[in-house]
Design brief:
The chain is mainly alpha-helical. Helices cover 65% and strands 5% of the residues. It comes from Actinokineospora spheciospongiae. Pfam families: GGDEF_2, HTH_30.
Length: 427
């Protein structure tokens, strides 16, 4: 019912001229309500009813002549358009007999349209069909009148009935759009929930594709507090900022947390700005971004890390907003996240050990000495320049500088986690 139901949303385009006419003082049809068909004989009404097939066929023929795309439609879809046009003429005849039946008849006309017709006809094409149909009716219906007085009545009747069609079908289209929006919202919530729970890749991809998500797009999950308890407000805040960043998003509110899946890269400075913009859509409190995955099929890993970071970020009061889950590895490890422990070993402890050259021993001694270079050198019985050289090399190996307080914490926790894992036989 989408495109066909949309007729009313645009029907006023074809009848705008008539609205001016009806309201311009002629007033013949305004007196019809509640009193039957003033000014039309029974013979004229019967003529209009018998001409329904002819009028509908003429409208379809005009569409075929003016629009190349109409001729390419399958035969069954063209027949469906003819059926809708016939129903419209029948509704017009019933309305002439009793104007109080207008709304019901026009609504029934569009409700009877085949549901799959909207797959073949876009909203813009529907506008064109309405315009042509009304033009055909304006040209042919007045000729069915018995005299000039009835001709004037029929001319204004076509225009006013077009207005009735506009209002009735506008409501039909709005209801269909609202239903589709509600369905999309439920489907989007299912996709986000599936990402959080780590659902099977096939079902996740099919649902995301139904929402128009590019399966090849990179995906990053952000979690935090929603900006409001009002669902429409949350949706507006997130989507407006995503539009400014020119990024597709999926979102879901799960209890007291907001989960947003952002499409596209986030590594370059310009791309990282998209994360900052999206963070402003969240409510007060920390916002954690998981790692950027190559596709939405792997987004559950980003979600898992982001949620782990959200649970542990309270241990870092000065964390930036948003903060990457990888920057919260020490806090996540202290909170008991085994994935964070493994990442600390894999990124810090193991590279230091494999690098050799007493790098691990030097880093441990430097941290134990409170970052005092001379004390570390005396403890290791080496020159201070040797300590400096080893610390620079350790920074190159791990990406963390022992002279930086935050990096020093990462190194300390990583080395401690490595010793514990080795003692348990896990490494």
């Amino acid at each position: 019912m989408g495109a066909v139901g949309a007729v009313g949303a645009v029907g006023a385009v074809g009848v705008g001229r008539g609205l001016d006419w009806v309201s311009g003082g002629r007033g013949i049809l305004w007196g019809m309500s509640g009193r039957g068909s003033v000014g039309l004989s029974a013979g004229t009404l019967d003529s209009v009813g018998r001409a329904s097939g002819k009028l509908a066929a003429a409208a379809v023929a005009a569409m075929d002549e003016q629009f190349a795309w109409f001729g390419r439609m399958p035969a069954d879809q063209r027949a469906s358009v003819l059926l809708v046009a016939q129903n419209g003429v029948a509704g017009f005849t019933a309305w002439l007999r009793d104007p109080r039946e207008a709304l019901r008849m026009t609504t029934d006309t569009f409700r009877g349209a085949p549901r799959d017709l909207s797959r073949w006809i876009s909203l813009r094409q529907t506008v064109e069909m309405v315009r042509v149909s009304l033009q055909v009716f304006e040209d042919m219906v007045p000729d069915l009148a018995a005299d000039e007085a009835e001709r004037a009545v029929l001319s204004e009747a076509v225009l006013r009935y077009g207005r009735e069609v506009a209002f009735a079908s506008a409501m039909s289209y709005a209801s269909a759009a609202e239903a589709r929006g509600a369905w999309d919202a439920r489907l989007e919530a299912l996709v986000v929930d599936g990402i959080v729970r780590g659902d099977a890749e096939e079902s996740l991809l099919s649902r995301a594709a139904a929402l128009g998500w590019d399966p090849a797009a990179e995906a990053t999950v952000l979690v935090g507090n929603p900006p409001s308890d009002d669902q429409p407000t949350v949706v507006y805040e997130v989507r407006s900022r995503a539009a400014r960043a020119s990024r597709p998003v999926l979102l879901g509110v799960q209890g007291s947390r907001l989960v947003v899946v952002l499409a596209g890269p986030t590594t370059d400075p310009v791309d990282r700005e998209a994360l900052v913009r999206m963070a402003s859509a969240f409510g007060a409190g920390p916002v954690v971004a998981g790692p950027t995955m190559t596709s939405i099929a792997e987004a559950h890993r980003s979600s898992s890390d982001a949620l782990s970071g959200l649970r542990a970020v309270v241990a870092w009061p000065d964390a930036p907003r948003p903060v990457r889950s990888a920057d919260l590895l020490p806090e996540r490890a202290l909170a008991g996240d085994p994935e964070a422990e493994w990442q600390l070993i894999d990124r810090v402890a193991r590279p230091l050990e494999e690098a050799g050259g007493a790098l691990q021993e030097t880093v441990e001694a430097y941290l134990a000495a409170g970052g005092v270079l001379e004390s570390c050198a005396r403890q290791l019985f080496v020159h201070p320049n040797t300590v400096r050289y080893r610390l620079r090399k350790a920074t190159d190996v791990t990406g963390h500088n022992a002279n930086d307080p935050r990096d020093a914490l990462v190194l300390r926790v990583a080395l401690a986690v490595g010793r514990l894992s080795r003692a348990r036989g896990l490494w």
